[in-house]
Amino acid sequence: MFRHLLLISLCFFNISVFSKDGEKIVYKTDSSFFYTEKANFYKNNRIFDKALENANKSIVFGQKTNSIDALSNGYFSLATVYIDIKKYDLAIENLLRTVSILNTVEVNSKLALSYYNLGLCYMQKENFSKAESYFEKANSVYESINLSNAINMVNLQKGLMYLEKKEINQAENIFLQISHLPIGKDTFNLQSEALYQLGQIKANQKINNLALNYLNRGYELSIDNKNIIQQIKISKKLSEVYDNMKQTNNSLAFLKIYTQLKDSVDSQSEHSNKKLITERFKVDDMMRSLEKLDKEKRQQEKSSKFSKLINILSVALITILSLLSLSLYKNNIIRNKSNDLLRDKNSELEIAKERIEKASKARAEFLSTVSHELRTPLNAINGISHILLEDKPKASQIEYLKSLKFSGNYLLTYINEILEINRVESDNIEIENISFNLRELLNNIQNSLKEQASQNNNDFRLNIDDDVPEILIGDPTKLSQIFINLINNALKFTLNGFITVNTKLINKDGNICRIKFEIQDTGIGIPKDKQESIFESFSQGSVEINRKYGGTGLGLTIVKRLVLLMKGKISVDSEIGVGSTFTFNLSFKIGEQIILSTINNIIDEKIFVNKNILLVEDNKINQMITKKFLEKKKMRCEICETGEDAISKMQNNNYHLILMDVHLPGINGTIATAEIRKFNTTTPIIALTAISLNENREMLLSYGMNDVITKPFNPDNFYKVIETNLLIQN
Length: 730
Prior knowledge:
Blueprint: H1 2-10, E1 15-18, E2 24-27, H2 32-44, H3 48-65, H4 68-84, H5 88-102, H6 109-124, H7 128-144, H8 148-164, H9 168-179, H10 188-204, H11 208-224, H12 228-244, H13 248-301, H14 304-390, H15 395-425, E3 434-437, H16 438-448, H17 450-455, E4 459-464, E5 471-474, H18 476-492, E6 498-509, E7 512-521, H19 543-549, H20 555-565, E8 569-575, E9 579-590, E10 612-616, H21 620-632, E11 636-640, H22 643-652, E12 657-661, H23 669-676, E13 685-689, H24 697-701, E14 707-710, H25 715-729
Parallel strand pairs: 4-6, 10-11, 10-12, 12-13, 13-14
Antiparallel strand pairs: 1-2, 3-5, 5-9, 6-7, 7-9, 8-9
């Protein structure tokens, strides 16, 4: 209501406001600023006839006063109204006039915005070449005046244009660039839209895992930015993707979110429309009243005896409206000051939050990058030392080579733990729910660690309560990782003692049971003041312990995070010189009795003879090592270094199996695999990769790969994976 009254009062007198420096600024009722502001007000409220009328008045004023600002503002305002009512030819005509005027003065953001709107108009007319040309001009201007966020806005529109043109790869590249921008309040909406478009692209390509990744990230950003419209469309798409993946519960959950948000927005929109109609009627009534008064004034001026009365009434009306406007203006200033103070405080909090998040992200990315990049030279060290040991070296060289191989494996353990802690901390990990035999799992762990226990003359015991169900449903891989880390610690810090694993049923409720696990040792023990900190990253109690026993200090951190992910809690009770007991409780569903078949780990080397293997690898040392491993088993190896060459060779040759490095120059191994699968769906393709924080086995398999070998690879595992895939092919 205030804006309507203010507009009416402005028809009778000048507007006086104050700048930040305290200088008084006066806008006259016939100024360009006055008309363009009225035009924008009417346009925003969809009163388009009034908006066009006031935009034209601004142009007429500019022509009378020969004012460049007035003309450019008028033509630009007129163009934006035509865009809203979808009259794109008229919008283009007025935008070109705006550009022509602005090119005669110093470069400014309105010139860039005019180019950007021209691009939008030509997109609507499906003239994509002109649209792209104007987007490039807009970016050029924004670069010259150093407005990076505006450049990102234009690039997002270019990505949408490429989608319209069906140029999916170019659109995807632009959206990826925007999604990788530093997170900030100026980029929330851009990144959310870019991630939404990436999710749609991957969903259309049936790569549902990646689609979910992008859509969930976009949904989180839209929540952070409180962008309800963005939440609505992303939640709808998430529901569709989960439905395609047959994940009904997730699909229904996001469908419910979509429906609730949509109903809320529709309700608010209906309320706003009713309010807008009411306000417009009020404005129209007031305008009619003023017109009537003006008409009566002209009539009464013809008669001298009523002229004085009319003048008094006019002054009184103007005075009342002036006082009302002044009062509202002061109230608005007070409210704006309060809002500015709140915004400043919120900005300070957001900056502090962003700094913490950036520091955490930078640490994770640094450790992930370092651990990932160290795997390539480690592959060379471990591979060459293995090859030299297999090639019957001199007796004097054997100890050196064994030491080299031991050092490589020792360093690999450090790197794997660093990568694992980053993966757990980044929440890039999921808990499985599959059937497994708990007794068999613990017995296998005991058998695998017997040799290590004997090195320190330790007795490794296993006690399993008879009441503990044999078959459970949970994540045996994560559970094994917890036990191996805790038992390895106990073996390392215990000499001539005992390590005991106790498993006891706490309670059973229907098909749910809760089990208590204890790992006891008679080792050196942990001081009371260190028992809390040992679960922190890179903490081992003291520097002396680290030097004497070695290790990264990450094992217990990984254990704690995995136990928390499985909805449990771990604690320690220890005394110096007596030993330590680590205790944690976990809940499992009880599974049905299953018969587990024993996997034959003996490799049949006949399967390797005369098999043609294509090795796609750009690193010369890795080429040499991998080829040597293959030829040792009488396989024939052909090498290429790029994904493009791999696609070409597969079109022109027959291979029994492909070893595909993931990180290649040009197109990477995943894209090359996806292209090969378009014309060849049978040849096994095995990924060779030093898996980083952002990679996982499921993601690689989604591109059409059959299996994954992690670098640096264990020779026995290397041959076993190849044998398994060759057998499947046969």
